[in-house]
Every structure is written in structure tokens, then in C-alpha cells.
Amino acid sequence: MRIFYFDPDDKRRQVQTVYLENILNEVEVEVASQLAGPLGALAKLEHHTPFDLVLVVAPPSIAVFELYQQTQQKGTRVAFILMSEHSLSTFAGMEGFQSQNPKNDYVQLPIAPTDFREIILKSLSPSYGQRVIPAFQKVRLIHFLRFSKALCNVYVKLSNHKYVKVINAGSTFDRHDIEKYREKKVSHLYIRNDDFERFQVTIHETPFLTFQSDKMSEADLQKCLGNTHAILKEMILEIGITREIADLAEKSVDEIVNLAYQQQDLAELLKNMQLRLDYIYDHSFLTSIVCCEILKHMHWNTEDKVKKLVMAAILHDIKISDPNICKIDSSLDTRLQSYSTQERKAFFAHPMETSLLITGVDFISPEVASIILQHHETPEGDGFPNGLHHSKLSLLSCIFIVAHAFVQKNLELDFDPDQQNKIFEELIKRFSLGSFKSVLDAFSNLRA
Ligand SMILES: [Fe+2]
Ligand SMILES: [Fe+2]
């Protein structure tokens, strides 16, 4: 499926190209911005296999008619869409071009993204009906549980072609309704493609969701945490983690949180992390479950080891408040360049600072402080803060580092069961030295 798209306006061309690529599967968009007259574009038309659609967004100063004539000479009835801020009558020779092919169209700009999509689809139907990308993108239900207001319309999917609006743009929603969907085994709600693009939604970020008020009551928070745990557990069970292990880890997390609340500094940091309920909390909770699963496969799941690793998982990034920097694992990651020197310094210091914060707290073992200090070290010794080689890392630290990497990769790939082999292959390559290898050998049983 090929579209030729001419538009001299750089900004608009970039945006519309993204829209075009999101309308159809396997679409190849050939863009042109400067016609050495439209002749440059014409040459392209002549030397390639035929286009299925020619889209021209232009002022009357461009020789659109020549371009149109050229497309028609190809003998195929290629659809031709002209879009402009000027009226059709200002384009010499183009009067009546719509009647020459029912798929041709003229559109007066400006145009909304949804209308743009409809016009393109109309011109390409019915031959491309099967390859149309759905007009909706899915968003995990968990995100809705954490907010109370949507800035765009939200839909529930009834079938491949039927979506029903359940939340109006700009309106608040009730968490009980979201919980009802969860009880009905609905895992995702949907928003339109153009809203998905407009708000730059990703697996982890949903800027179209916000709060009705910035205060969440204690009861609300507890309910929200309970639901968050339930959904995170559902996600991780889908990729083969044992339910008893997930329940055991959750119980241990609850006990540790209760203990941590008795220590003022920890209580404050923990509360902040819980209130934000973002990537930092999710990956900490999930890492605690995966640590327990690895312990089970290593036949080392004593109460003491479970408690130490769960405690490290919940507290390891407690001093970080930016969920994006938290996704960075290596000091060489280029994403660090977008942070100030001070922010980078704080990031590189967080293993040491957190470890110092918990040292001496009566219910926390020194081994937990050591795991936290070592959680960004690597088998090759190029991690931070101390660049320790694998032989200097404790076995508990190795388990933690592998569990953390596994969770990070799964959050990035939205816990896709089909990607698990690929994830394990990557982990096996990355953690092939010393104790890391024995951890991976045991954990790989999860794939069996
Ligand atoms: Fe982390
Ligand atoms: Fe960290």
C-alpha cells in the first residue's frame, strides 16, 4: 500500500505522515516537500510502482494540475486528494476533478485529525478495509484506577468493530465503575487514535488522565493500592509467575510497609511513592514478587531471604521521584543527557543515600542495605556507584539485579507472554557470569 504525499509545510507534513502511518497497516508513505516544480515528484511517480493514493496539500502557487494529469496518465485509477486553505476554484484546471473518479476528493483546510482519517479511508475503501488499523488504542485499566478525570472520551470495546463511550471528555469518573470492569475481566479501556497521539500516551504514561482534586483520602489510597496490587498480580501471573508466590510477596510487602511507617523518614518517602502510584511503585512491587519467584526456583525461599529481598525491592528507589529517570539502568544511557548535572548526580547517588538512610534502622538487616547499595552494579563491573565486579556482589544482590531487569523489560513490553523467550534470551546473554549464571539457570525454569 503506497501513498504519495506532497506538502511544502514541514510541520504539518510531519504530523500528517504520522496520522497516515497510523491509519493503515503496512503503509509506505513517500513524502515530498519541495517540488522542483511538481516535476521532482512526477519523476518519482514515474519511476516507482503505482501509488494507491496521491495526497497533495498545497497553495494554488503549486502546479497541482500538472501533477494530477501525470497521475491519471498512469492508466490506473489512482485516488487523488487535494487539500488546501484556498478554495478549489483557485487551482487552474482542477475544476470538476472529483467527478472523474469517485475516490477523488477536495478538502478545505483546516481539518481535524478524525476527519482526516475518515477522508483517507473513504478514498481507499473498500479494497483496504481489512488492513485498517483500529481507530482506537488500548489503555490498561490500572491507569484509570489511579485517576479520577479524563480529558478525552473513553470507550469500552464490545467487538472488533464496536466501541461504546463510557467516559465523556472532561468529566470525572468513579473508581467503583472501573472496579466493575475489572470484575468483568475487562483489562483495557480505549481512546481514539488521534487522542492517543495528541496526549502522547505510552504504556507507562497517560497524560489524558488527571485528578478531580489533588487530595486523595487515606481510605481512597488504601483502596487504590489494593486494586493496584490486584492488577499488577494479574499481569505478572499471565507470564507464568505462581499465584502463591505473588500472594506471599504481597503479604510480605504489607508487613514491611507497616513496619516502615513506624520510622518517620521512611514513612514520608514511602507515602510519597504510594501517593504517586506510578512506574516507581509498580516496578518495586513487581520486583518483590519476581525476587520471591527466583528464590523458589533456587530452593532458597526461607522466610528470612524473602523478607530481605522484598524489603530491598520496596525501598530501593524510594528516594527517586521522577519515574522516567527510574527506568534508566546504566550510567551510559543517553536519556541521562536530558537531565541537569544536579539531577544526574542525585540519580547516581541514590543507591548509596538510600542504603545510608536505612542503615541502623532496627528492623532492617545490613544485608538489605547492601542489596540496595549494589542494585545498579553489573556482572562486568561497569555499574554504579562502586563499579563492583560480579565476584564482589552477594548472591542476594545478584537475585535482585536479575529480578529488577526482568521486571523492567516486561513493563517495557507490557507483559506480553509472546515476548518471554526473547526476554530470557537477553537476560541469559547479559547475566552469564558467576552467581548471576546460577540465578538465571534456576529462573529459566519459569519458561518450562
Ligand atoms: Fe529500580
Ligand atoms: Fe535504582
Task: Summarize this structure briefly.
The chain is an alpha/beta fold.
Characteristic terms for this protein:
two-stranded antiparallel ribbon, 448 residues, Rossmann fold, Hypothetical protein af1432, alpha/beta
What does the model show?
The protein is an alpha/beta fold and 448 residues long. The protein has 3 domains: 2-131, Response regulator (Rossmann fold); 136-210, no CATH class; 218-447, Hypothetical protein af1432 (Orthogonal Bundle). The protein has helices at 10-21, 39-47, 64-73, 113-124, 141-145, 175-183, 193-198, 218-237, 243-260, 264-276, 279-297, 303-315, 341-358, 366-374, 395-412, 420-430, 434-443, and strands spanning 2-6, 28-32, 53-57, 79-84, 105-108, 136-140, 149-150, 154-159, 162-167, 188-192, 209-210. Helix 8 (218-237) packs antiparallel against helix 9 (243-260). It is elongated and about 85 Å long. The mean pLDDT is 88. Bound molecules: fe (ii) ion (2 copies). One fe (ii) ion is lined by residues 316-317, 350, 375-376.
Layout of secondary structure:
Blueprint: E1 2-6, H1 10-21, E2 28-32, H2 39-47, E3 53-57, H3 64-73, E4 79-84, E5 105-108, H4 113-124, E6 136-140, H5 141-145, E7 149-150, E8 154-159, E9 162-167, H6 175-183, E10 188-192, H7 193-198, E11 209-210, H8 218-237, H9 243-260, H10 264-276, H11 279-297, H12 303-315, H13 341-358, H14 366-374, H15 395-412, H16 420-430, H17 434-443
Parallel strand pairs: 1-2, 1-3, 3-4, 4-5
Antiparallel strand pairs: 6-10, 7-11, 8-9
Residues 316-317, 350, 375-376 line the site of one fe (ii) ion (FE2).
